[in-house]
TrEMBL record:
Region forming the signal peptide: 1-27
Domain Peptidase M16 N-terminal: 76-191
InterPro entries tied to this protein: Metalloenz_LuxS/M16, Pept_M16_N, Peptidase_M16, Peptidase_M16_C
EC number: 3.4.24.-
Organismal lineage: Bacteria, Pseudomonadati, Pseudomonadota, Alphaproteobacteria, Sphingomonadales
GO BP field: proteolysis
Any Pfam family hit: Peptidase_M16
Record-given protein name: Zinc protease
């Protein structure tokens, strides 16, 4: 049963046309429609007593196609279509490896209603962005085609259903199409290959040795992909693409009678050819010969990967089998979830207190209808994998040996209850695409969906079952299986052998009770006040909907928006300081570690453990990020917890704490992670690109292990304490809360802070830019020899006054991206997914960039630079044709229209406006800036910014070995 199926109905915000630029239209029709079939016994709920989600309507066509449709108005005007075919990589014969995935690509190439290469521009004309609104996915068990159609009307829905039906049951699959698409698939294999692919294959072998899952890689083999022909692919398609193996799911702002009728219209005439082929046997884990039933340790593997952090995984495996998705079955799942939550909390507590592992957790997964497994994942510190494994197994053994306490259970049950309550409250907010994906997932795992209210009701019915003995029984069942297999990944040869790993797992675990959680509850009422509550703030309207701006006597300002458009949810954001501008170059290690350790270093009486305990049964968040010109805390809460959420944020300023444990753990994580950057072109880009783009600015250099070794708790405090103590604070509070109570909570917390001193002048104003040059800067990686990457970056601007220009640059970048995709992906298969992006720091007068990048073979790096130069020069010298520009502006119009149904969208647009009121007025031109830009304006932008001699170039190529 899916626990996330909801019935959304979000009230669209009423905004002037000057703001949103367009109206959405509901895909309804006044013409008579056939009635929906009876829903007394829907196919999804066969054999289940889980109450039906009555907002879904189900049916089966005469040819066997199953369908499910529902109305959903989030985002307004959008309809999401999913077509799932019950064929994946495990349906392939050895000589067909990769065929399911290759066909997924080819159906977009050419089909009954789409001529050669027309799919992407066709969907773009309908307002769908390729890659996000239009996509597909192949897994070991299924292939799913996905369309999110914005601004849907009966006509565009009819056209979309026609197109996708032809793609599914009548693709061309010609030799000429295969010759074009096979290199693109191989580029995808190359970009996702290397170390990551080796680890995935090793994990599959460990998990499913002797089963099809172990040997069927979804992307396939180079030989079979290059050897694919229309005769073999068409035979594969005919064998598996049959009506009875297809499920069509539609959720969106349309009459379900209409969408059901369109499924019938376009899929009803499809006939399968010949008799159906039985599904292959996915097998089951086998018990090792002579194994101890109580500890059936089987195969172990040690994988040497010099650039990958240490990781140890062992799995207790059971055969996957069909289950009756009943209420009782779901109560068992909830008991499993509760038991694992207790166990994972104990593992986290041990890691924080100085264990031999950086992190560890236990998960239960049903993988690809092949195995039912309990997976234990451990990240050892400093190569002491034996000590780490012994500690983790000791904590698990304690859970197996002694039942958890009533307090343990109550804490985790309270956490679960918050989740289920939130899902009920926010059922009106879930997008149709998520609802459709959830139903597709339910079909894939052979389970059902249920409304949030039903899930919460089952949970409440289950509460009496949550006894210490029942939880212990479920833990024991999770660690009982037919075989235990293990995999250790390490950078060091000789550190372990398969025999060592097997011997460690065969050793009897000694129960370790040290990680049992402290039981004493903590209450916010016990904590000291931030200060004396302030007088009521000065209140003024912002002119943006019902958002008010509050000014407190201490200088804190807030943007305040109580609204019922976001039921059950309140968002709090706190913006302060100068962001990256606040750091000196020598502070780079402390800046990086602050993103991991600042929050967890505590506040007042609350260390990290106490922060967790005080949050039990509450909905509180505490995320932190560093932006170009500010720092930000963010938390999602609810009305009843709003005052406590505000207290947590305000206390970080009023009474910061500097516990060393979180810093030392973050330092260890940074050292472990560092070597992995060198393993691939993507890793080298993540490590070095921003540092290089910003003129070798040390603030943006990823700290080396040697730099991290010099980090001290006192040094951390010296860097971060002044940042928390100075400069103005802006608080955003928006969502479903009572205005008077929210105002009172602000007065007790942020209004009660002491007046803050002025923000100290930033170390630098803006950022330098990398030295341009005709020859690229060349870096190396230690991964596979067929992987490389290339980047071209041009400097642009920044600041609020240039926001219109920044939006035009986004349009220009997307036109550039479409051309680069056609040149590098479609014509040569040189790159799977080249990217072009624009960045414009709003808080700074400069520092913006436009960047084009791609992952390619080393031989293709010069081609990439030549192609980028050619496209940039053409954009600067010739106007973009109106038809080409529309392929970008129409999807952008739809994206902004969809975003305009979210309160969070508007609040993100006005962040910082309490300090710079120009940001309020800049929102009003948002839509027009994207959709009304003229070709000559884009040409002028390209001529100004995309200048060859001003570009910085980076090539990342493999090391010579």
């Amino acid at each position: 049963m899916s626990h996330f199926s909801r019935a959304p109905r979000l009230l669209s915000l009423v905004i002037s046309l000057a703001l949103i630029g367009a109206q959405t239209s509901s895909a309804r029709t006044a013409s008579p429609l056939p009635p929906l079939p009876s829903q007394d016994a829907p196919w999804l709920y066969k054999g289940s007593d889980v109450p039906h989600d009555r907002e879904w309507y189900f049916g089966v066509l005469d040819n066997g196609v199953r369908w499910a449709v529902r109305n959903n108005q989030v985002p307004p005007g959008q309809v999401s279509i999913r077509v799932r075919v019950d064929v994946g990589a495990m349906h392939e014969k050895p000589q067909e490896a990769g065929f399911a995935h290759l066909i997924e690509h080819l159906v977009f190439r050419q089909s009954r209603y789409l001529p050669q290469g027309a799919a992407i521009p066709t969907w773009q004309r309908l307002g769908a962005t390729f890659g996000s609104d239009t996509n597909a996915e192949t897994t070991p068990t299924a292939t799913t085609y996905k369309i999110d159609l914005p601004d849907a009307s009966p006509a565009t829905l009819d056209e979309s259903m026609k197109l996708i039906s032809g793609m599914v049951f009548a693709p061309n699959l010609s030799d000429s199409d295969i010759r074009i698409e096979a290199p693109i698939v191989l580029a995808e294999k190359r970009e996702r290959g290397g170390t990551a692919e080796r680890l995935m294959i090793a994990m599959r072998k460990m998990m499913a040795e002797g089963q099809p899952l172990a040997s069927h890689v979804t992307v396939g083999d180079v030989e079979t992909i290059n050897g694919a022909r229309q005769t073999t692919l068409r035979a594969f398609h005919q064998r598996w693409y049959r009506p009875e193996k297809v499920t069509v799911v539609v959720a969106g702002d349309a009459d379900p009678r209409l969408t059901a009728a369109l499924v019938t219209k376009w899929f009803g005439e499809w006939k399968g050819a010949g008799p159906a082929t039985p599904d292959p046997d996915f097998g089951a884990p086998a018990t090792p010969p002579g194994a101890d039933p109580a500890n059936p340790v089987g195969a172990a593997q040690v994988l040497i990967e010099p650039t990958v952090p240490r990781s140890l995984i062992y799995a207790v495996l059971r055969p996957w089998h069909e289950k009756q998705d009943t209420v009782v079955y779901n109560q068992g799942l909830m008991l499993d979830q509760l038991a694992l939550s207790i166990l994972n909390r104990r593992l986290e507590a041990r890691a924080r207190s100085g264990g031999n592992f950086l992190s560890a957790r236990v998960d239960q997964e049903n993988e690809s209808r092949s195995v039912d497994g309990t997976f234990v994942t451990v990240s050892p510190l400093d190569g002491n994998w034996r000590g780490a494994l012994a500690e983790v197994r000791g904590i698990i053994a304690d859970m197996l040996d002694r039942p958890p306490s009533v307090e343990d259970i109550a804490r985790e049950a309270a956490e679960m209850n918050v989740v289920f309550e939130s899902q009920v409250q926010q059922r009106a907010l879930l997008p149709g695409g998520k609802l459709a994906d959830d139903l597709v997932q339910a079909v894939d795992i052979h389970e059902t969906v249920a409304s949030p209210a039903v899930v919460q009701d089952i949970f409440k019915q289950s509460m009496p079952l949550f006894t210490p003995q029942a939880v212990q029984e479920h833990v024991r069942s999770l660690f009982a299986g037919k075989v235990i297999r293990s995999l250790y990944v390490t950078p060091e040869k000789g550190e372990a052998s398969p025999e060592d790993l097997r011997a460690a797992l065969l050793t009897k675990a000694v129960p370790d009770e040290r990680a049992r959680a402290a039981q004493k509850p903590i209450s916010f009422a016990q904590l000291p006040a931030i200060g004396a509550p302030s007088a009521p703030p000065e209140v003024r309207p912002t002119g943006m909907l019902d958002v008010q701006e509050l000014t407190f006597a201490n200088g804190v300002k807030a943007q305040f928006w109580p609204t019922k458009d976001d039921p059950g949810r309140v968002i709090v954001k706190v913006r302060f300081g100068a962001g990256w501008q606040a750091f000196k170059p020598a502070d780079n290690a402390y800046a990086t570690l602050g993103q991991l350790a600042l929050v967890s270093s505590g506040e007042g009486q609350l260390g990290q453990e106490e922060l967790d305990r005080i949050s039990a049964g509450r909905k509180l968040g505490f995320d932190f990020r560093i932006d170009d010109g500010s720092f930000q805390f963010t938390g999602e809460t609810r009305a009843e917890d709003l005052e406590d959420q505000l207290y947590l944020f305000a206390a970080k300023f009023a009474m910061p704490r500097w516990d060393s444990g979180p810093l030392l753990r973050a330092r260890a994580a940074g050292k472990i992670q560092f070597s992995s950057y060198a393993a691939s072109p993507q890793g080298v880009m993540e490590r070095d690109l921003r540092y290089l783009q910003r003129g070798n600015d040390e603030r943006f250099a990823v700290p080396t292990p040697q730099q991290l070794d010099k980090v001290t708790p006192e040094g951390f405090r010296q860097v971060w304490a002044p940042i928390l103590a100075q400069g103005p604070i802006e608080v955003q509070v928006f969502g479903d809360f009572d205005s008077a109570k929210g105002m009172e909570a602000l007065q007790k917390t942020f209004g009660a802070l002491a007046a803050r001193g002025p923000l100290q002048p930033a170390t630098t104003k803006g950022y330098a830019f990398a030295r341009p040059g005709a020859q690229p800067v060349t870096l190396t990686h230690s991964g596979d020899a067929n992987q490389a990457a290339a980047v071209v970056t041009w400097p642009t601007g920044g600041g609020v006054e240039g926001l219109t220009e920044s939006r035009h640059l986004e349009v220009l970048s997307q036109v550039f991206a479409n051309r680069l995709l056609a040149a590098m992906r479609e014509k040569s298969g040189a790159s799977y997914a080249p990217q072009v992006s624009a960045d414009w720091p709003i808080d700074l007068p400069g520092g913006g960039t436009v960047s084009a990048s791609a992952q390619v073979t080393p031989q293709m790096v010069p081609l990439f630079f030549e192609t980028v130069d050619r496209i940039a020069a053409d954009l600067a010298t010739r106007k973009i044709p109106a038809s080409e520009l529309a392929l970008v502006t129409e999807p952008l119009r739809q994206q902004v229209a969809r975003a305009s149904s979210s309160t969070a969208f508007f609040m993100s647009q006005i962040e910082g406006a309490t300090q710079d009121p120009r940001r309020y007025s800049q929102v009003r031109g948002l839509m027009a800036d994207y959709v009304s830009v003229k070709p000559e304006e884009l040409q002028a932008l390209a001529a100004r910014w995309l200048v060859k001699d001003r570009a910085f170039r980076l090539a990342i190529v493999p090391e010579r070995k």
